[in-house]
Specification:
84 residues; flat; mainly alpha
């Protein structure tokens, strides 16, 4: 197994551990995992094909569906207001 996929597995385990924390303690580690996902996806893309990255993105969206939903709603609202 390549280093990128090993790191992705470690990322998934870390995300599962963060999910067990109380909600008030999930913000900082969850945001950290979300930020670290971007370079990890790029690294997976360098070592593997587009399809592997697509599978990883699907897993990311599955695990972070609520935060991404609220972020999308927030950004969409700001776009509709004219960026204020």
């Amino acid at each position: 197994m390549t280093i990128s996929l090993t790191l992705a597995c470690v990322w998934v385990v870390a995300a599962a551990i963060v999910a067990f924390l109380p909600m008030r303690m999930q913000y900082v580690p969850g945001l950290t995992l979300l930020v670290l996902a971007v370079p990890l996806l790029i690294y997976i893309g360098i070592q593997h094909s587009f399809w592997v990255v697509l599978l990883a993105v699907m897993g990311l969206v599955s695990m972070f569906r609520r935060p991404l939903w609220f972020l999308g709603r927030h950004l969409w609202g700001r776009l509709r207001e004219g960026g204020t």
